[in-house]
Amino acid sequence: MWESRYPALPEGQLRGDVFALAGELGVDVTDVQVAPQTATTTQYNAYVTGLGDHHVVVLYETLLLRSTPAEVWVVAAHELGHVAAGDGSRRALLASLGAMAMTALVGAAATSSRVRRRASTQQVRIADAPAVPMLIALTVAAGVLVLPVFDSASRAFELRADVTALQATDDPRALRSVVARSAVLYLDEPDPAWPWRLLSGHPSPVERVALAEAWAARERCPARRPHC
Amino acid sequence: MALAAGWWLLVPHDPTGGLRPGAGDPTAGIDDGDLDRIHLYGALVRPFEAATLVLSTAAVLLLGLTSAGARLTTRIAARVRLQSLRALLIAFAVVTIAWAVSLPAAAASRLSTTRAGGLSGGWPAWVARRLLQLGQWWALTGLAVLLVRMSARLLRRSWWVVLTRVVFVLVLGGSVVSAG
């Protein structure tokens, strides 16, 4: 129903490597496709789409044009790592729980006489139209509280997917160069100030590079890298 | 409680898998020329991005949680008799005011992005994206307002307890559909 319909990546070593990587990580991949993004953006990315046993790895054309095969491989491993760990379902459940928490906060605040007095809505019922601005304001306030929690979870998922990519490729150098190139293309501060870090769904480039360095120090580059 | 339990069960406790990364290279391996460009972009664009967020949030909080805001919003669509329609019109007005208040900062952010050499389309594309964003805010807020009104009318005191479960199912369903 939600099948991705980009052109397939032509047969070759990279396509075979991505299938092999998926098999190693226990992810059923039915196709590797190329999203032709060159005309609309110079930024690069990849993702895995699909449900159940049918996943499609989608690589941006810009990623293929700007990266070495080793870098594409590490990006594919990162994305497949998300699927292998069930991060999509985990994110969906967390988003649902976060929305529940927000609704509960809004409900509790909207029934508080102190809040109602401040909003001058003591005389109206929740279902009445004049209560709408108060409900919207409380939802925004609840979102400000809940969203950083969700972003923090997202950063943990991303770090784990980086570790999976390192385990699968044994190539911390490729991860480092992908992180640096991505930061340059997206103009991301390598080490942003805390408010931006708090509201980001990804670890900072400095954190990701530190992870790759820690991995390199541990593994010292064994010979299991087809693209090194 | 549910969020805390969900966090405990769903979020990896040790995402680095036992690795203990050090402080790391503060440049993240980016060369000096690119680093200067990134810092310039940050200095020019970040303040406007923050202003966009702060202004729209402040506008919504002022309209919804102060007596002055209440005086202003109760005048909106005061002659409309159908309460659901009036609730929707008030919601759209609040959202539009918040959107409009933050618009100058958003435009300045876009201008700074271009000056700093960041990627951005032309002004027509920017206007189209802003209008699309407003449309999305209208749709989401309208749906939420109708849901709250329906719950509050049907369930009286326990409206938000039931609504939390409805929201859980809706967001989960939406997440599954978008994941596909």
Quick tags:
heterodimer, A: 228 residues, mainly alpha, Zincin-like, 2 domains, three-stranded mixed β-sheet, 9 helices, 3 strands, B: 180 residues, 76% helix
Largest sheet of chain B: none
Shape of chain A: elongated
| Total discrete domains of chain B | 1
N-to-C terminal Cα separation of chain B, in Å? 29 Å
Oligomeric state of the chains in view: heterodimer
Percent of residues in β-strands of chain B: under 5%
- Supply the helix-strand structural class of chain B: mainly alpha
String of helices and strands of chain A: HEEEHHHHHHHH
How many DSSP helices of chain A? 9
Bulk shape of chain B: extended
Roughly what percent helix of chain A? Answer: 55-70%
How confident overall, as mean pLDDT of chain B?
Answer: 85
Largest interface: A-B, 88 and 79 residues
Rg calc of chain B: 22 Å
Structural class of chain A: mainly alpha
Low-confidence stretches of chain B: none
What is the chain-wise order of helices and strands of chain B? HHHHHH
Which bin fits the share of residues in helices of chain B? over 70%
What would you say this structure looks like, in words?
The complex is a heterodimer of chains A (228) and B (180). Chain A has 228 residues and is mainly alpha-helical. Chain A folds into 2 domains: 72 residues, Zincin-like, CATH 3.30.2010.10; 133 residues, no CATH class. Chain A is 61% helix and 7% strand. Chain A is built from 9 helices and 3 strands. Chain A has a 3-stranded mixed β-sheet with strand order 1-3-2. In chain A, helix 6 runs parallel beside helix 9. Chain B is an all-alpha fold. The longest helix of chain B is centred in the first third of the chain and has 34 residues. The radius of gyration of chain B is 22 Å and the shape is extended. Chain B has 6 helices and no strands. Helices cover 76% and strands 0% of the residues of chain B. Chain B has one domain. In chain B, 26% of the residues are buried. In chain B, helix 4 runs antiparallel to helix 5. Chains A and B meet through helix 4, helix 6, helix 7 and helix 9 of A and helix 1, helix 2, helix 3, helix 4 and helix 5 of B.
